[in-house]
Specification:
The chain has helices at about 45-50, 55-60, 95-105, 125-130, 200-215, 270-280, 300-305, 320, 325-345, 360-365, 385-400, 430-435, 480, 490-500, and strands at about 10-15, 25-30, 65, 70, 85, 110-115, 145, 170-175, 180-185, 220, 290-295, 315, 350, 405-410, 510-515, 520-525, 530-535, 540, 545-550, 560, 565-570. It is an alpha/beta fold. The strands form 5 sheets. An 8-stranded parallel sheet has the order 12-11-10-6-3-2-14-13. Strand 8 and strand 9 (about 180-185) form a beta hairpin. Helix 5 (about 200-215) runs parallel beside helix 6. GO terms for molecular function: hydrolase activity.
Length: about 575
Amino acid sequence: MSTEALPTAFLAHRADTASSWWRHAVIYQVYPRSFADASGDGIGDLPGVTAHLDHLVELGVDAVWLSPFYRSPQADAGYDVADYRDVDPLFGELADADALIARAHQLGLRVIIDLVPNHTSDEHAWFQAALAAAPGSPERARYHFRDGRGEHGELPPNNWQSIFGGPAWTRTTDPDGTPGQWYLHLFDSKQPDLDWDHPQVRAEFEDVLRFWLDRGVDGFRVDVAHGMVKAPGLPDWEGHVAMIDGTDGADDVDAVDGSGNHGPMFDQEGVHEIYRAWRRVLDTYEGDRAMVTEAWVEPLSRLARYVRPDEAHQSFNFAFLAAGWHAPALRRVITASYAANDRVGAPTTWVLSNHDVVRHASRLGLSDPTHRPNGIGHGDEQPDAALGLRRARAATLLMLGLPGSAYLYQGEELGLPDHTALDDDLREDPAFFRTGGAERGRDGCRVPLPWSGDAPGFGFSPTGATWLPQPAAWADLAVDRQRGRAGSTYEMYRAALRIRREEQLGSGGLRWLEEPTGEDVLAYRNGDVVVVAHLGDAAVPLPADATVLLASAADLDGVLPAGTTVWLRAS
């Protein structure tokens, strides 16, 4: 294999000359309750985030995305919002959000915050007013209240199932104690879905956008972005929905493999007018504000509709995450992603882990590294930690060499695995309880970060308290243990982000290179960098003339070992 000899396969993506920051940014997701705790109660907070923003600067990212910190009863870790214009006391106060935004901007970091528009908390003032009002009232019209089916209304209005398990409907109780109407919740019963056909709902969220834009945020990540509008009449549907699901990357960007979230509750045409209205709001502000959608949509051609020029700026590419450890699938999905997004002039995003999925350092250590379990528990197959980390590092370098925008989940720069032996009596994810434990849920990927290997609670909190226990093995993965240590995962991330910035890989082009060593090796050229990822089982030779810029493993010695990605200077 020689960087000169590798023939060109085809150009998959042309270099992007647009200057908007979000087109090529590396964005770091902070899950506030698990990032850093300043108060000492064992739960992360906004002052804790602010105090550690220098970590993100040192790492080399461009922006921070914060999961919800709004006022909330925390039935779903803040994704059940009771007040969109206030900070929950668990995380601080509104002044702490202002201080975080100001400090981030002082350090050169952009700030994206979560927006949760599909549903509110059942403790939101609107829903409390709806419960107190009569059927057919204006208060109930802002949600999906319906009479039940059956002789006495004892059956749900339709057969939809909650993404968290169980029926998607809960029956209310009237003031006189008799059973009343039902309300829709695609997630937990404490997360009633809003009716986006109601003009007050649309006006309210445009005002929420302005509230936070006026406070200086640089953009929004939109939760369940494909779910706000439901099909008229809420018809029955026999399908099943899951937290993260999507295509495995068919060659045709219009192909559907049947595994994504379809049905009358998702990807309805009306959602696009919402994003056009929101884009008009963002475009009135200076500073290149951005919006990224969490839309579990397939095929890729339909996902690209969310990022047309007058809608959102980015959409998460779950097809890439779903492709797993399989070179042909990864090549297909990368190629198809560029084809779909280039058609509409939008950048492609890349992500391997987030707060809703098992971390890739654990997923890729399973006997089937293409499997995506909804959580791993003490009674399940335990990942091979060393193999998982090796593959995770290789997958990361494969991803960070790609043009477009990359999203990192807090702690992946440390090589953190999930806490896969967490006691079930410590779990808090509603998906675990609503499925009776059939799904382990997402707590394992949300464990508080280790900052200091020798401190109580690994330095997460000044008291040593942590809302979930940390695995003992995390001591050697703590930030202070990895900083400055040659070959550590943290230093590999820092080097990758530095080279990515220096070589302008985020705005580059992608040309596939035909690799003669077999289908388990992916090779592409981005500018003056050649990225070669080996997902097979046997080592392949490196070119004798290769200048290695960065490798995911240290044991090269003239060959590219299995489970390794290398960045080479193009000849």
